[in-house]
Batch of 2 targets.
Target 1
Amino acid sequence: MTPGERRRTVVGLAFVSPWLLGFLVFTGYPVCASLYYSFCDYDVLSRPVWVGLLNYQDMISDSVFWQSVRNTLLFNLMALPLGLVSALTLALLLNQPVRMRGTFRAIYYIPSLVPAVAGAMVWLWILNGRLGLLNQALEAIGFSNPPQWLVDPAWTKPSLALVSLWGCGNTVVIYLAALQGVPQSLLEAAMIDGASPFRRLVHVTLPAISPVLYFNLLIGIIGGLQVFTSAFIMMGGAGPERSVLFYAIYIYQNAFEYRHMGYASAMAWVLCMLILVLTLMASRLSRRFVHYQGE
Amino acid sequence: MRKVSKLLVYALLVVGAAVFVLPFAWMVVTALKPIDQTLAQPHAWLPRRFEAPIGGRLQEVRPGGFVTEPSLWVLQGGASRPVVVPQASVWDGAWHPAVGAPVPVVVLKQVPASGTGAWIEVSDLSGLSSDIVRQSDLKSRVSFRWENFPKAIKSMRHFSRYLANTLILCLLNVAGTVLSSAMVAYGFSRLEWRGREGLFGLLLATMMIPFPVVMVPLYGLFRSLGMVGTLQPLWVGSFFANAFNVFLLRQFFRTIPKDLSEAARIDGCGEFRIFWQIILPLCTPALIVVGLFTFLGAWNDYLGPLIYLTDEHDLTLALGLDAMKSSESGATEWPYLMAASTLVILPVITLFFFAQRKFVEGIALTGIKG
């Protein structure tokens, strides 16, 4: 390195030093430590004791662990497609030449800003079995025995999916921005060729925004596997018959309620691997379905 | 055809908007109701105030049940409150319930339910005295109980402390994140040096790590530093740059022409001064976006405070609101809970209206460039 190069490197490193330090202390060290703990019996109070693969073996035989996996997957199978399709539909509607588009956009977007705790309180009240607005409305239109949304294990996951749907405005705005970037020339060309609105959507619009569809799907999967807050607050943890004991909630319980920090770390690593695999799979798929402009 | 589809678009948008607004509306009207009106079924939309004469004096009352058959308003020996019983079940100065022995009663009032309009039972707010009145004597009007808000604050017990903690965290997180992320983004975008790309790749890779992976060792770390139970674990990290924000700001920094820095360098301007006095002021819009989302993140955070804050006197608003729900033994006081929720949501919505464009730009930026 020439002296000039060395100087530049020193200055560059100086500028990124906050992140570099933070990386070492708040990411690098914890990642290594948690990998180590995942092979240990550890309760934070005493030193970790090496137990080899025991935590991972325990996971296989732990029926609650499997229940949390099932719950998480089932919830996401409901919430993810529902959220993505609803958000896309709303964005397509908002992308029409409508009046008061800004107002509509604000209305759809604001719920996604609401603090999770406050949102959870509001939905606890709306979904309350006897007094809730939803069930009173259902009773008023003739359902004499509406579901106990928060109590019946069959309904807790759909209820939470509904709550998450309320916060889809974030995704709507992302889609809307992408839709406004769809080349007008392509749409006009398709129109001149006599393509119906539906065919224009499928053959022009969707391919044009496919990178954003892909991005939202990926973010949705990664976030969905870590779903925690609204379930934890609304159901006080695992919910009736552990029906909303999601993966991240079980990790939290192991770490901070049972003090099985080693087991919690092992679960976290399995999650990390799962996310990695799903992301790789998605990127494989994306090669076939995602079109980047200018390629 | 064109007109029909346009109408359909509006119809769908309006219905959707109504569904999205409904929870807010329901929260606010509930926050303004007296508790008994949230327990009555079916609910009235708006909070009301009922007035009726009890013992000849007009006062605020709680309506009870309607009287549907000819009945008597009777006082049992030893009881403090009269009750309604069917006329047919009273004879010889005693009430004969369907099950059990007859009870001697004093008849206070006769209620001929069929005839001159329905009768309704009312009780005063203390619940100590009650009466039975014609429905036409029961006056009701819409009346908002603003006093629920101070009551909700009081029932959260340490509200001012929670608010102060939350604001401190918001302030420190915004300051820390904006300053450190801007500095790091500068190093990754406007300086050329060896190893830059490699380190930036590492930074991007850290975004993939799910929080649960680092959760346990971080807790151990802060515990060994004696910081658990204090606010420190919740803001210290923000001064060490956040990968996502670095990425965002780097995209923005790159759009500023290189010549600007070169000219400053030739004039003998130091690198930090170029960053601080030339580039940062040009990037204010992007910095505001980062600050805005950091503020929201800190205001809304639940899991962080849940892990690190242990003293119920010293929580954040989010945890305080949660505690308010769980501390209610038995019946939840929905109006207070909704009033407190409104108070927690209000700053966020206010912020949105002041910075609407920034929000939308920011979101679109994260989506497209991400």
Target 2
Amino acid sequence: MATSNKVINNQTNQGILNGDNIVINSKALAIVGTDAVSEAMRQINPDVVAAYPITPQTAIVETFSQMVADGLVKTHLVAVESEHSAMSATIGASAAGSRVMTCTSSQGLAYMWELLHIASGLRLPIVMPNVNRALSAPINIHCDHGDSMGARDASWIQLFSENAQEAYDNTLQAVRIAENPDVLLPVMVLLDGFIISHSIDRVEIIDDEAASNFVGEFHSPYSLLDPKNPVTVGAFDSLYGYFFEFKRQQEEAMSNAVNVIKDVGQEYGKISGRSYGLFESVGMEDAEFAFVAMGSAAGTIRELVEEMRSRGIPVGMIKLRVFRPFPAKELAEALSGLKAVAVFDRSNTFAGNMGGPVFIELRSSLYDLQQRPLMINYIYGLGGRDLPIELINKAAGELGEAARSGRVKQIVNYLGLRE
Amino acid sequence: MAKDVMEIRWHARGGQGAVTAAKTLAEMSLTKNMYFQAFPEYGPERMGAPIQCFNRISKKKISTYCGITQPDIVVVVDPSLLGVVDITAGVSNDGIIIVNTTDNPQTIRKRLNLNGQKLFVVDATHISLKSLGRFMPNIPMLGAVLKVTGLLEKEEAIDFLKESFGKKFPVKVVENNIKALEEAFREVKGE
């Protein structure tokens, strides 16, 4: 198996899934999160990658550039002069019928903003890993989810990753989700800056052939370079046109994505041994109160939840993987009947103490339930502030107290804030 | 929390290769089919300034992604950090401390005001000067960590360095690093 020169050591694994007679070939590597994404990009072998470096995403482009130079991929790499151009070139190449990727972080994503809407409006299946990093000011290069939350209404699918393994897995699956004819929307793969992107972790890389077969070939349904089937891309569509209808169809595509994401996640399980859904549930079958979180924090929360459950405490956790489309119906089902729910947000909406985006959307999702759980919001980790177990434990205490007493002391809380 | 995870904190100065040592330890753990993390203290790294980096190592999958504040093992790569940074912060009485020093364990124990913690010393500076001809104490300290934890046998560690460093460095450099590692295995002393 060809690998980047940063990949040093490995363990080869072979396993047979129960039931299905499918052999899984994979290699465990000791690599940082950015290299896990680069490995997925190598296996996807996109036709075009246009990118501009920004901390902490830089290492993805750096490693991938080396792969291009070493001839490990056939990708045409366009080194552009800004993220605005990166997304513009990506849109152009995608409209021309290529399989296209880029990646960014923070200010870079913000600088792409107007193009993000064009990519989704043109229904271009672009895949973009975004290494979550705070937005300035003050200048801060560390992790929070404020950057991708700024694009939450841009009609991009958003898949959050707990760790490097999931960043790799999500990147491979993103291609299949984006290119599905019922979806045709761009997909953002999110991973936590530094905590995941720059930390060495154990990552199972499936074998090249299995990855390549899984991803498959891309046949663009509407290529600009297909003179037999001429199409107009990016036309003016004003008062008497179909703008409103196009936007309605976009919403339909996003709704369609729910089932596609589930199907692709199941199919991926057959080649990797790791199946994916809209979210992961821990102990939800008998939980009375639960945490909801995204990204690396969900891993740390899981440690505490499992430890608490071993002491007989009826706590559970939902790790939200898919933020767009927001799985409102499925989450409402999973949380129905609970006494209390604590939602962790690594960003804020600045709506006047309404809470973070996950909280607001989940609260709205539960409104129609007959028995709504009490809800508490914890905003944490802005600008990379650490989330140690002790702080989660504090939140767990407050959550348990709310479940027992039937009332929430304070709805929106700031965890780890110096005050 | 879950103490089937071994947590290590490395203290060094920028440029002494501690991050490489932590990374190499993670890669070595993989040869034992273990789970691991290696991460630096994120921030501007300046040559000579005190830095920290970290490892988590476990036989089971690790899903803790917060910083390490209560390490099981502390490794002091640079002797001049004693008295400059709080080496023992968060270390419990059953913790292990491994120090690069010319002093004997009794002196260091007194200096760090240690209670029940286990203390190991090794003169990694001397070893690196002798083997590598320069002050690069990271590989000897890695050797000391391996000896103390029993994570890899000496021969396994040597094989790993041959394979891994062999891809990146000239033969002479690889040989000298192996010499440094072997000597640290021999020289590290408890009380």
